[in-house]
Write a structure and sequence with these properties.
Layout lengths: L2 E7 L7 E8 L5 E8 L8 H4 L6 E8 L5 E9 L4 E5 L2 E3 L6 H13 L2 E4 L4 H4 L2 E2 L8 E10 L13 E6 L1 H10 L4 H12 L12
Parallel strand pairs: 4-10
Antiparallel strand pairs: 1-2, 2-3, 4-5, 4-7, 5-6, 5-11, 8-10, 9-10
GO molecular function: hydrolase activity
Keywords: Hydrolase
InterPro entries: NUDIX_hydrolase-like_dom_sf, NUDIX_hydrolase_CS, NUDIX_hydrolase_dom
Length: about 200
């Protein structure tokens, strides 16, 4: 196992920071590594805490009387200079339970009312997003959305279009558009499964 010798915080931003690690690999090779993190201090890094608490939530939600549409957002992302399809998502606020965060984020991004499902913890525990560059982890919350789409609660810094996609539209999106990988894998199951949430009824 590699050994981390010291950590330096390089930025002091509100939502994301960059840290530099000096380390030695298992092969005794010096390593200079950079980690982006939601942590506001070195002591809050998962390297230090050893805990995998969710930084954010990803919301996989079905909509409509037949629950045959999936709630997506088409969002402008500066990292790619263009639009990408994602599930509604956002950061968990301090002392906020992540299911509550999912309800809040769904309303803020889409105007919809979200009702989370109770599922086996293995399906919704925090999983790491892009661990080669960040210690960020997100919990996935599953459920049903209802109501009318509204942009009233969106932040001025966001550019979000809400999409209620049926299976034909999902096929087009996967074929033609930029899609976040966490969303894409679930959409592939959405296309094939009569009940997209059937797997959540399993006990692990």
């Amino acid at each position: 196992m590699g050994q981390i010798h010291n950590i330096e915080k390089l930025t002091d931003c509100k939502f994301l920071n960059l840290y530099h690690l000096n380390a030695t690999s298992v092969h005794n090779t010096p390593v200079s590594y950079f980690v982006a993190s939601r942590a506001k201090s070195i002591n809050e890094l998962k390297i230090k805490t050893g805990k995998n608490t969710p930084d954010g939530v990803i919301i996989y939600s079905l909509h409509g009387e037949k629950r045959d549409r999936v709630v997506l957002v088409r969002q402008y992302r500066y990292a790619i200079g263009g639009y990408i399809y994602e599930f509604p998502a956002g950061l968990v606020e301090p002392n906020e339970e992540f299911h509550e965060g999912a309800v809040r984020e769904m309303y803020e991004e889409t105007g919809l009312k979200f009702t989370p499902l109770k599922v086996d913890p293995a399906f919704e525990k925090p999983y790491f997003t892009t661990v080669g560059m960040t210690d960020e982890s997100c919990a996935t919350v599953y459920g049903y959305a209802e109501g009318e789409i509204s942009k009233d609660a969106q932040e001025d810094t966001e550019e979000i279009e809400v999409v209620l996609a049926d299976r034909e539209e999902v096929k087009r999106i996967l074929r033609e558009e930029n899609v976040a990988i966490m969303c894409a894998y679930q959409l592939m199951h959405f296309l094939q499964d009569e009940d997209p949430f059937a797997f959540l009824k399993e006990e692990l």
